[in-house]
Structure formats: C-alpha cells, structure tokens
Amino acid sequence: MATVFITGAGIRIGSAVARAMGRAGYDLALHAHHSVKSLEALAEELRGLGRQVSRYSADLSDPREVEELGARVRADHPTLDVLVHNAGLYERVDFEAITREQYRTMLAVNLDAPFFLTQALLPSLRAAAQPLVVHLTDIGGERPERRTAHYSVSKAALLMLTRALAVELAPHVRVNAVSPGTVAFPESFDAAAREAILQRIPLGREGSVEDIARVVVFLAREAPYITGQALAVDGGRSAQL
Fold first, then answer.
1. Residues labelled catalytic
2. Which pLDDT tens digit goes with each residue over 95-153?
3. Mean pLDDT across the chain
4. 8-state DSSP, 182
5. CA distance 233 to 183
6. Burial class of residue 154 in the structure, from the number of CB atoms within 10 Å of its CB (0-12 exposed, 13-18 middle, 19+ buried)
7. Nearest by Cα to 10 from 35, 28, 27
8. DSSP string covering 52-93, please?
C-alpha cells in the first residue's frame, strides 16, 4: 500500500488533500501543529475508509522539532511514496513594519521546513517505486501583492526549491509544486475585499480546496513524466496583469 505524508493536514487545503489521497487508496501520515483536534477527527474519518493513519504534531518554525519530526516519520515509514509540503504561514504586514522575527518565522515554516524535511525523508522516498514531492506554493510567489513581502519571498524561494530538487533528485524522485490562487477566502476578508479579488479572476469565482486536492492526486497518479513544474490553480488570475 502506498503512503503519503502531508504537513498542515488538519484544516483547509491540507485536510482536502488528505481526504482525496485517502480516497485514491493511500495510507496516510498526517501532521498538524495548532489543528490537532481537527486532525484527530480527520484521522478517524480516514480510518473509516480502511486506511492506515499515523498522526504527528510539531512546530515547523522550530528547527529542532522539524528534525525530530523527520526522524519519527522516517522510522515509522521506511518507504514513503508521496510527500506533500502543505503547512504554511500567511500574514499581511506593511513592509516597513515587518520585524526580523516575523521574517524569520515566515521563512522557517514556508521554506526551511520543506527543505529539511525532504532532506530527512529522502531515504524513505528513495525506497519507493515512483516517489513524488509536492510543494504547496502560491501564485504570489511570482506576482506579489502589497503588504506580503516576506510571504512572497518565501513562496518564490519555494518555487526555486521545487526546480532545484527536481534536477538534484532526478531521475528517481519527482518534485512539483501546486500554486493556488484565491482558494477559500480567509474569514477576515469582507464582502468588498472579496468582490475586488473576484473581478480579477477570469473565471469569476474563487476556487475550492478540492480543486487543489485533485491536482495533487493527478500529480501522484497520472503524471509520471512531469517534474520541476508549478501548476497554477487560480481560475486564470495569473494569466493577466
């Protein structure tokens, strides 16, 4: 049975990816930090599908916890077919107000954790027949918005990590990215803010977390000759200025 490890699996995109991969027949190793209770409920739901599910908790901004998480997952899963780096931070702050601590934490979670977790889990990935690493990036990594400088920098670097590892780990390990656009508005966005964004999306609507999950399953099951790519799932928003 194939196994997938997903970070940030307790809510939103992470939980949708877990459900989709579970329905596709994968056993699951699931990580959460703040959403541990949601992760417990998700694990029970997936076990109801007949899947084996293991759970992990770690603060991905802490290098020591990242190292310990990698060691635990590697010990529990000596063969790992898919690794999905979904966990991430997002915040809007004026550039001049971004502190060193905010910058450090943003890059630690969004870039350093995927880098060093992949490094730690490489033996498990190399033991699989057709291993895949997926980074959840963002169209903001190539087209930044105001008040997201540290976030945009972290996602741009993650896009480069995708390409670098696709070259470095070839020919056995594939590495791709999925770049969401507007998927499931944050609760803090009011009606006016949402409408302003929708006007910039050619398809005229926000995406769903399931839209992202389907692409991850596609990369895992149907795309053995795709590596080093970032697939935008954004309703066409990144296709126009």
1. 151
2. 999 999 999 999 999 999 999 999 999 999 999 999 999 999 999 999 999 999 999 99
3. 96
4. S
5. 9
6. buried
7. 35
8. -EEEEE--TTSHHHHHHHHHHHHHH-SS-SEEEE--------
- Residue range 3-239, CATH number: 3.40.50.720
CA-to-CA distance for 82 and 155, rounded, in angstroms?
Answer: 20
Res. 89: pLDDT tops 70: yes
| Residue range 9-54, pLDDT digits in tens | 999 999 999 999 999 999 999 999 999 999 999 999 999 999 999 9
The sign of the CA dihedral 44, 45, 46, 50 is positive
Q: Report residue 148: phi and psi, to 5°.
A: -135, 30
The pair of structure tokens assigned to 14 is 């992470």
Mean pLDDT value across residues 66-86: 98
Sign for the pseudo-dihedral over CA of 235, 147, 164, 15 = negative
**Local confidence band at 241 (pLDDT 50, 70, 90 cut-offs):** low
DSSP H or E stretch at residue 134: strand 132-136
Query: Which position has the token pair 């409408």?
Result: 195
Cα distance between residue 47 and residue 143, in whole Å: 40
Among residues 59, 53, 58, which one has the least CA distance to residue 40? 53
Structure tokens at 173: 């390990």
Residue type, 127: A
| CA 129 to each of CA 51, 82, 162: distance values in angstroms, whole numbers, following the listed order | 20, 11, 20
* Beta pairing partners, 6: 30, 84
Say how many C-beta atoms besides its own lie within 10 A of residue 1's C-beta. Answer: 10
pLDDT at 119 (0 to 100): 98
Q: What are the backbone angles phi and psi of residue 183, rounded to the nearest 5°? A: -130, 115
